[in-house]
Every structure is written in C-alpha cells, then in structure tokens.
Design a protein that fits this description.
Elements: H1 2-19, H2 21-58, E1 61-65, H3 71-75, H4 78-82, E2 87-93, H5 95-104, E3 123-128, H6 134-142, E4 147-151, H7 154-195, H8 198-206, H9 211-248, H10 262-290
C-alpha cells in the first residue's frame, strides 16, 4: 500500500510539473538565479579568504637581538622564541646575512663598500600561527630577555582582519537574504499552480483524504523543480567560475590574484546547492499548500 502511495505521489508530482510547464520553468529559473548569486558571493568570500591567508603567511615579525649578545648567545634564543604562544617558527639571521640581503636589494652595491656588518643586528624572522594575535605576540617578545626591539606590522594585520570580517559578514547576510527571497518567490509560484487545483483539493478533503496524502505530490513537485534548478545552477556556476579564473585572472593585469581550483570546492558546492535547492523546494511547497488544506 505504501509502495502504491509513493508511486502516486511521484506520478502526480511529475504530471504537475509538466501540466504547469511555464510556471515550472519560472520556478527553476528563480532557483537558478538565487543559487547563482549565493554561489558567486560564497566563492568570492572563499577566494578572498584564501588570498588573505596567503598574505598572512608573508606578513612576518622581525625581532632584533640585543647588541651585547654574541652570535652564539643570539642563536640560543631561537628555542626560547619558538616556545612563545602563536609563534609558528623563528629563523635566525646573522649580521652578515642581514647586510648581504640589504646590499643585494640595491642596484649600486658599491656605495656600501667599507660598511662593516656590525652596523646591523642579529635578528629573527618570525612567522605566526594567527595574525589576529600579533599584538599579544609582539608584547611577549618584548619581555623576552635578549630581544631588544620588535617590528610588527600591526596596521596591516588589522587591515587583513577587517577585510575578512566585512567579506564574511556581507556574504552571510546576502546568502540569508537571497534564501528568504527565493523561498518567498518559490512558494508564491507554486501557490499559483495550487490555486488552479483548489477545488480538487477541497473535494479530496471532503471525501476523507488526509492532509499528508494531498500534500506529498506538491512536495515531490517542489523536489523535482529544486533538483533541476540546483543542477542547472551548479553547471552554470562551474562555467562562470572557469571563465573568470581562466580569462580574467590569467590576464597580466591580474597576476596578483590567486584563485582556488574549482576541484577543491566542487563537491561541497554541489552538496550546498542541492541542500539549499531542496530546502527551498520543500518548504516553498509546504507554505504554498498550507492554506488550501484548511477546508
């Protein structure tokens, strides 16, 4: 009996999709449009987050060693510094190495002839685990015996944090807003198809049909529309993303931009599209038929 009911629900849902072809097409288009916008902002947020992570890895702290320490004593600070919370690693740079790097960074190195390496300090190049804790790490380094001065780009780190916060907040807000909009449009679209069958629904209620028996074909219809819309949106999103990454970002004027390969996010993106599409389809169908079951 349950098997027969399931067959009836699926059959009625499919028939309804084709009987109201134009409205079904409109519903699919709405789902595609909303998912594309949500997907685009999600991908933008992920890529910006990825670029910020890359920038963070290059944003380092310089800890200058006290001039009174010998090279051996300065090198001995390395394990001490690496034990400080939030320090990923510390690389020792001797005076001679610092001078060589400085001289090589200038085209005319002859102007530095006769300059002694003692004008430079031993130092450590320090990478952090979390850039948001840079100020605390700087304070801890300054209290470490043997460390004379610390250069930390606090404004840059705060800028990265602000950008990430704004992008994340805007993306979440847009996803929520677009989900609500698509849900509203989807439910109203299905309401139009339901209105044409209001008399049929009323008769079914009067002869004893349960609400769930009447409701399920509409849920199946919503699922079918959601599946078509989600898969169509996913294919279009893939095409648009590939076009942008290959044509726009590969342009010499955008070489500083790095993009996540779609293969990295393909499966999660497909799951998100299907889940969001199905939620919109099912909830929209339930909202659409709710009033017509009150007979």
């Amino acid at each position: 009996m349950k098997h027969n009911r399931l067959g009836y629900y699926i059959k009625e849902g499919i028939v309804s999709v084709f009987n109201h072809g134009f409205m079904s097409f409109a519903s699919i288009c709405i789902i595609v449009a909303c998912l594309l916008i949500m997907g685009t902002f999600t991908l933008l947020s992920l890529n910006i987050d990825n670029m910020i992570d890359a920038m963070e890895s290059e944003n380092q702290i310089l800890a200058y060693v006290d001039e009174s320490l010998s090279e051996e004593e300065a090198r001995a600070l390395e394990p001490v510094i690496e034990r400080i919370p939030n320090v990923a690693d510390a690389q020792f740079i001797s005076r001679e190495e610092a001078m060589e790097t400085f001289v090589n960074s200038h085209e005319n190195s002859t102007i530095f002839e006769g300059v002694d390496a003692t004008v430079f300090r031993h130092r450590f190049v320090i990478n952090l685990d979390d850039i948001s804790k840079m100020a605390d790490t700087q304070a801890r380094l300054l209290t470490t015996a043997g460390v004379a001065r610390v250069n930390a780009h606090l404004e840059i780190s705060r800028g990265f944090i602000r950008i990430r916060s704004v992008v994340t907040t805007v993306s979440i807000a847009l996803v929520v807003i677009l989900f609500v909009i698509s849900l509203f449009i989807m439910s109203n679209t299905i309401k139009l198809t339901t209105f044409e069958r209001k008399d049929e629904i009323a008769i079914m209620k009067m002869v004893g049909a349960t609400s769930s028996f009447i409701r399920w074909p509409f849920v199946v219809e919503g699922l079918i529309l959601a599946a078509f819309g989600s898969l169509s949106a996913y294919i279009l999103q893939y095409g648009i993303y590939r076009l942008l990454t290959e044509k726009l970002i590969s342009n010499t004027g955008f070489t500083f931009i790095t993009a996540l390969p779609f293969s990295v996010i393909a499966v999660p993106m497909l799951i998100i599209f299907l889940v969001v599409g199905f939620c919109v389809g099912v909830i929209g169908s339930l909202i659409a038929i709710k009033n017509y079951l009150k007979v």
